[in-house]
Amino acid sequence: MLYVRFPLSLRNVEDLLHERGMDVSYESVRYWWHRFGSQFASQIKKCRAGGIQASHWKWHLDEVFVKINGERHYLWCAVDHEGEVLESYVTKKRDKKAALKFIKKAMRRYGSPNEIITDKLGSYGAAARELGCAEKQVTKRWANNRAENSHLPFRRRERSMLGFRRMHSLQKFASIHASFHNLFNSQRSLSTRSTFKLNRDAALSEWRSLLISQKRIDTKITDAWARLSDSTATTSSSFLLLLFLALFLRKIRDLQQHFATDALHHLSYQR
Questions:
Q1: Within a 10 A sphere around the Cβ of 8, how many other Cβ atoms?
Q2: CB 147 within 8 A of CB 77
Q3: Rounded mean pLDDT of the chain?
Q4: Which of 58, 60, 231, 259 could link 147 by a cystine bridge, Cβ 3.0 to 4.6 Å?
Q5: Contact (Cβ atoms closer than 8 angstroms) between residue 227 and residue 256
Q6: In 3-state terms, what secondary structure has residue 214?
């Protein structure tokens, strides 16, 4: 949680855990990040995509320059009217093809918005005309400041990580970081203290439910494989049975996380 929520490096997390009496290497933190980060982010994005209906109202689209080994790449971001990052996509160019693929990817998950606010880059207009939503595009001056401000948390993390080395690493980090930022970003400057505390408690409860569900399913799968390895007369039918059991338990875990996080998300927005 320290690494995904705060702009800390792996070695900073190791030092903080050491101060709290836990001897954990930064390589272990890196392994946990690669092992569980994408799983938690996909569950958060799946549940929030089903619960966010207001995102059909207005989208802010923007791209930012990111250098990978001295080569310029482009990180495309779609942000709704409340500042929540909907989609992130990394490309080598910012032409019509890249913009079209990015917008299609966002619409596939969240549907078509009522209004699309962009800058005056020609790729957005060409992609919007091909998709048949050119009348929804807005390019007014200073209208896209919300998308510009959404890059600030990413830039802070980029500086702490000293840049990126591969395009795949940038895509993975941008997607995961956006999901966790949406979960823990309560926008305290736009709400009262009591509302901020309720939203923060709801985010922590959702995070803990993800941890508990992941721990339960991993324990069950580990026990199943341990019983399989300890048995001396294991047949192919028993192997397939245990494999089916592991997949079934993982599916149950996904359903539990979906209902739990969806309920907490609606509760926090109602408050």
A1: 18
A2: yes
A3: 78
A4: 60
A5: no
A6: helix
